[in-house]
TrEMBL record:
It is a multi-pass membrane protein. One of its GO terms (cellular component) is m-AAA complex. It catalyses: ATP + H2O = ADP + phosphate + H(+). Pfam families: AAA (PF00004), AAA_lid_3 (PF17862), Peptidase_M41 (PF01434). Its main location: mitochondrion. Component of the 850 kDa m-AAA protease complex, a heterohexamer composed of YTA12/RCA1 and YTA10/AFG3. Associates with the prohibitin complex, composed of PHB1 and PHB2, inhibiting the activity of the m-AAA protease complex. CDD domains: RecA-like_FtsH. This is HFR080Cp. InterPro entries: AAA+_ATPase (IPR003593), AAA_lid_3 (IPR041569), ATP-dep_Zn_Metalloprotease (IPR050928), ATPase_AAA_core (IPR003959), ATPase_AAA_CS (IPR003960), FtsH (IPR005936), P-loop_NTPase (IPR027417), Peptidase_M41 (IPR000642). Its cofactor is Zn(2+). GO terms for molecular function: ATP binding; ATP hydrolysis activity; ATP-dependent peptidase activity; membrane protein dislocase activity; metal ion binding; metalloendopeptidase activity.
Amino acid sequence: MIRILGSGRIGLRPLLRSWKQEFTFGGIQPLRQGSFQQRALLHWSAPRRAEDGKDDKGEAKDNNQKDNRKDGQKDGGEYQNFSDYFKSPQFARSLYLTVGLTFFTHMLGTLWQGNEEQEVMTLQEFKTQYLEKGLVKQLFVVNKQMVQAELLPQANVRNDWSRGMDFANRSPTVAFTIGSVDVFEQELERTQDRLGIPPEERLPVTYVDQVSPLQYLYPFGPTLIILGALMYMTKRARKAGGPGGMGPNSSGIFNVGKSRAKLFNKETDVKVKFKDVAGCDEAKVEVMEFVDFLKNPEKFKALGARIPRGAILSGPPGTGKTLLAKATAGEANVPFLSVSGSEFVEMFVGVGASRVRDLFNSARSFAPAIIFVDEIDAIGKSRGKGGAMGTSNDERESTLNQLLVEMDGFTSSDQIIVLAGTNRPDVLDSALLRPGRFDRHIQLDAPDVEGRKAIYKVHLAKLNLEPSLRDAKKLDVFAGKLAALTPGFSGADIANACNESALIAARHSDSYVEFHHFEKAIERSIAGLERKSKVLSPEEKKTVAYHEAGHAICGWFLEFADPLLKVSIIPRGSSALGYAQYLPPDQYLISSEQLRHKMIMALGGRVSEELHFPYVTSGAQDDFKKVTAMAQTMVTSLGMSKDIGYISYEQSDTSVQFNKPFSEKTARRIDLEVKRLVDEAHAVCKELLTNNLDKVDKLAKRLLEKEVLTRNDIVELLGPRPFPEKSDTFEKYLDRKN
């Protein structure tokens, strides 16, 4: 804190510990006090800390400890970012110092403006006490604001202002303020006229403009102090490292062109290993080979092989691209630099290219090393096609050009491999994908049933399962059953389902995670959260039951329909009032008959409503979207329409098209063909449900009674399905006989 010790109201106080310095301020200020010599003591003090009582030996010991810091440790290095510095005692002291000096400057200005103890009279008092009695010698108008009157020696003055009048004799002096010089002159003239003073004997009036030189500096004092404090704090913060600071390892404004890549090496504890990656064996082998390239380069060079420059990991979200990169960082005994594509993008021009250069310079200093760029499509989009309406982005293109140059400028001795991950390989620039830059394109698709089974095994090992599943063989069957129940799930979906099942078990205070917990978690992932609070009216519930029964009957009696696992009329999610769970097989080809049966099954809900109620509802809206999409795909993309023929009119999703790839006449034919396919499916569906009305009624009534029916319940009601299941997965894991 700061204390001013001096005369006037500012009394002397006992001196505290620490240093002190004496200043003398001088100047002429006739407004209220005039010229003065003010002695002030600027005293710095701080509360006495407990450790201040240590003897000289203790202080010497502390000094030795400070001197024995590690080499390279700089002042301010303890701050990881701006936020840490703003919370530090150094910032608090700087802030207190700034506020104190600003207050000190304000106090000095108050002192320069005069002494508060010197009283100023009014004009009326001056006229009554001095002017009318003839005790005034002359008048001084100072700065057009104050009048100081020099009196005759015999005048009795209570508050003498003569000390501040270097421009007058040392006679008694009084002062009063005026609002306007013109008004003062008029009042003075009227008073002297009334007193009958001749013009040649009237009081002389002198106009004085008097300002202390320090007053010119006073308005700039607080500003200069604040600017100085900001410069000091900025200097301290520049020494700070970490993200947000401005040190050598920071990402602040002074290092905006530096790479933000995170370094992983032998000392970094990366817990993910290749054994934690499952369901993508081929991709894992490819990436493991890259690690082997760097660990044993002589084995490949002896055969004349060249180490690949890089590889792109592409695939749908959640298939394990980033996880595979993490495993690479955990397994490789070489430095691993990880960075996101969006981290090259900045508001400043040229920053992206600068960060690319800095990234590769860092990798060369660590060589052999691996660079992983996640979501590379943020900077790797095709040039001239990345913006809206086909426009280009110069900043992004300059970043991409720098990346192309850095990758193509490698030599095999650099021993630097670049891995990249993206969900959209179709939008990447062709120059980036050519051999010599990214030599290998590794595709990670959604896992099949065996891949899902392997992923489940990885995640089940972390859960506290019931004791009966701790046997390896039983655990293998259990993982296969879960894999069969989750067709189309990615690795991220499976991890989420396992975690959700453990949360459900904990919510019910169960000791182990059991199969019914997994069932609830899978249903939540597929259909959404069960909404028991969403109460349907009896009529709505009956409509939903017959709607779902229509879907189930169609799927049960159509040969190429997917096997039915469960049907429910409990509302789920935001809009679903009921749902049916099927088991689509892992297949890569689909026939026209399969598509027709899917369309018929999708229309089963609306047709069931038509047969059992006088009015239909809006519950089939989503079904119609699916049916229309399948029919349009059959006609425009798959060549499954005899009228349209074997032509593909599929429109690209990666570019903007203003014109359709077909004429208006062809568009009319496509519309008619789509309508024909949907009408045929509707007719077949109506015939099928009409022939099985009793089964629809039986299934709907059981649904109203139990709300949820499993496959075993449907077998008891309708008998075995008339067609053998075409999925080996179903027979292996879900058939009751096995």
